[in-house]
Batch of 2 targets.
Target 1
Amino acid sequence: MSKIEVKVPDIGDFKGVPVIEVLVKPGDVIKAEDPLIVLESDKATMEVPAPASGRVGEVLVKIGDKVAEGVAILTLEAESAPAPAPVTPAAPPPERREQPIAVTDEFDAGKAAPAMKPGPAPLLGPRGALVDFGAVFASPAVRRLARELDVDLTKVPASGEKGRVTKEDVKKFLGGGAAAPAAASGAGIPEIPAIDFSKFGPIEEKPLSRIKKLSGPFLHRSWLNVPAVTQNDEADITDLEEFRKKLDDEGKKAKEAYRVSLLPFLVRASVAVLKEFPDFNSSLSPNKDALIHKKYWNIGFAADTPEGLVVPVIKDADKKGVLQIAKELGELSTRARAGKLSPAEMSGATFTISSLGGIGGTSFSPIVNAPEVAILGVVRSKMAPVWNGKEFVPRLMLPLSLSYDHRVVDGAAAARFARALATVLEDIRRLAL
């Protein structure tokens, strides 16, 4: 055996990321890729895996410590030397959102979830004074969760070791009992009463996946805070589909084979229309009194994984062609299903696309991935008779559902955006203009 020092791998540009769980202790026998610790940034919760099999020596970090890339977390008596390539942390649940709507098309499956979470507002007392959690024994992650949900940690009963307040304590306090205050984002909304379903017949209780447990509260918050409206339209993609099939056939025969689905065209068309309508590529300022226009176009798409939804992001989509985006979509989808996405690959989206693709449906209302202000939903295209001025002809029509934050976008702008998007998809030559 060789003694090695395990360090935090590449976690993007994040610094001072708190340790929220330590999953091993000295003497534990572990296998390569077993999770060692869990980190929680503003964008994602991520596990740091073991680089090799062996026995844990000294654990150098504890819950609440803040770490960055290269910080030593433990020593390991390794059975074999770890691979020289850097280890990418498995990062299941993006806290941004993501949104539980399937993203699938003929070749890519996934679900939209949303996206970047805004910084938590300070919790204020009855006289406007900032609530002090200084005397409470809780991790930074728990303190942040309490401020996001407007929960006074000084009133939360602790169940952790040595009186530590856990995330479960905060959630239990928020959702149960008359003494629990309502969160600011859901004030006055009563909890669904608990029911003993076993009284009516056999049941089986299965725990939610880690991703769903973490993404659920952020989906709920986005649903409660964003006054969303959905604009529906449709695009004639008959010509586009013919061109897509030709590109896909060429891609399958390439030396390094790749697939071309409809999604790369949706990404490029969305970028073109976002440039024409910059309010859709913006976010509200923290004080909700200004718009922050983003001069970059990063498009998020959801990917289905065995554990739940993650949302990889195509960075600088305005600088990439359809084939390059198609290849990147394939690579990111594969990494997502393997749990190998880094936090940097799931952050920074300015607009999200959620496609039900080959599953079906006629339309739906995707949840806006706050702090983004709009999200595009797409379902399966279908042949329909279309009047061309002389006769009805069969055309392949793609339903489009654009959900938007009504505080930023009005109905007329949403209708124009959806129509402009349909126009680009109907004649992709416009992408060259």
Note: The domain at 2-78 is CATH 2.40.50.100 (OB fold (Dihydrolipoamide Acetyltransferase, E2P)).
Target 2
Amino acid sequence: MRDVYAVVTGASSGLGFEFAKQLSAMGYKIILVARRRGKLEQVQKILKTPSIVFEADLGKTEECIRLMEETRSLDIEVFINNAGFGECGRFYETDAAKELSMIDVNVSAVHLLMKLMLQRLKSRVSGGYILNVASSAGLFPAGPYMATYYATKAYVTSLTRAVAREMEEEQSDIYIGALCPGPVDTEFNDVASVEFALKGISAKKCVKYAIDQMFRRRVIIIPTLRMKVVCMIAKFFPTKQVVAMTGKQQRRKKKI
């Protein structure tokens, strides 16, 4: 068993749950972070290594800071910045409060936790790993009918690329990367009130690939060949056409 920790935010279900399981199986002690303590305690019971349940609403700045302060004495090597959610619908019809909350979690929390964790890893002798869970949505110019979600994930991928380059120019041993999957079979669908038009991959498969690529120090991680091809082809089409095609795909999720 490793005498170091991995932090997983949004660990109560979906990709976060899988990250916790697979990192625990690798020997990491786990810090499980989410709003639902009961769910976290259920996850805790199946892990193979010691773990800590940390109940927090990361949409609140003070909770992000509390997470970092209360774990300061622990040797954290891996930080999975996973908490996030989506929403689908016409921009003028979707709930503004839910969208602002989405920005707080998907953007502000990811940004702040990444910054605080990076500052912490800078003083660590052997560096460490920060993986931001974004989406293939962050690799497209815009996403009609999921406009806010696509914008938040574009922020994450842009920020990740920039900071990863800063670390590379410093010849730092700290890894910064972003996981950008297409459809994954998780609770995301229910929270966003959507049904994927394309078949999703399993969370287990997505996370297994993500961890492997993280340790290989791949900055942008796209788990399936299909999504890699789609993202590559999109670069050769006019932006207006790509946005229109993306919007058509999103409409099929909710039959808008």
Note: Strands lie at 5-9, 29-34, 51-55, 76-81, 128-133, 174-179, 184-185, 201-202, 220-221.
